[in-house]
Design a protein that fits this description.
247 residues; 60% helix; 8 helices; mainly alpha
Length: 247
């Protein structure tokens, strides 16, 4: 969570300084470009570690939206989204196909913002799965995160002309950015995650992890009594001692 806060503060500060003309638009674009690309790569990598786990999260969304027919291909969508996210990050860093990248990223963020708002407002999916098992975000935190990212995406979209290419080896870099993560996906689907963030990873003492933390919020119990008094059923708490009421 600290990482996200620093990331958001840096981007917001650069945008504000550019608005106040303390920072040039070009320098603002540099900050937003590389920080946002880093975010995309980080987000893609933590899901790349366990694409199967991310597919389970997609299944939740499919079921919530009544699209159970997509559940069998949830793994395909999982791999596709991960590769797409990483490819966007790489292209943004190197300045490849910027117009297409800006459109793809903006549409992707608007789509994710809709999903997280739906999850938050209707409390349907309690964890967005944006960072796999590495970091859990509740729906409202995830929604506000996406609002910020949409804002950054719009700024980059508006000033995309200032994003210049850093390399002439576009084809080879893009091909590498697709093939290496794809091969990594194949490997992780055949083995346990190389970095396991799951609750019951190897080496975890399940008995110890089942213990309730000392500072955990205690359960609160309340008895509700229903008594018929003078022909009407009424609700009482234990403190009201309804058994002693005449009638």
């Amino acid at each position: 969570m600290t990482f996200l806060i620093i990331f958001f503060v840096l981007q917001t500060l650069s945008a504000v300084l550019a608005l106040l003309k303390v920072l040039s638009i070009q320098n603002m674009v540099y900050v937003l470009r590389f920080s946002y690309a880093g975010f995309l790569l980080f987000s893609g990598f933590v899901k790349l570690i366990d694409p199967l786990g991310f597919s389970y999260k997609l299944q939740e969304y499919f079921e919530v939206f009544g699209m159970e027919w997509l559940v069998p291909v949830s793994l395909f969508f999982s791999v596709f989204i991960i590769l797409f996210e990483i490819l966007l990050g790489v292209c943004l860093i190197f300045g490849f196909q910027i117009k297409k990248v800006m459109w793809g990223n903006l549409l992707l963020m608007i789509f994710f913002t809709f999903l997280t708002f739906f999850s938050a407002y209707f409390n349907k999916v309690t964890d967005c799965g944006c960072f796999g098992d590495f970091m859990k975000l509740d729906p409202w935190h995830s929604f506000f995160k996406d609002i910020h990212l949409v804002f950054i995406s719009i700024l980059l979209f508006v000033f995309q002309a200032k994003i210049k290419s850093l390399s002439k080896n576009e084809f080879s870099i893009i091909l590498t950015a697709v093939l290496i993560p794809l091969m990594f996906c194949v490997y992780t689907l055949s083995h346990l995650p190389i970095v396991d963030f799951r609750a019951y990873k190897i080496g975890t003492d399940i008995i110890d992890d089942r213990q309730l933390p000392l500072d955990a919020k205690k359960d609160v119990y309340e008895d509700v009594w229903y008594y018929e008094i003078d022909g009407q059923v009424q609700e009482f708490s234990t403190d009201e001692a309804p058994w002693s009421i005449d009638g």
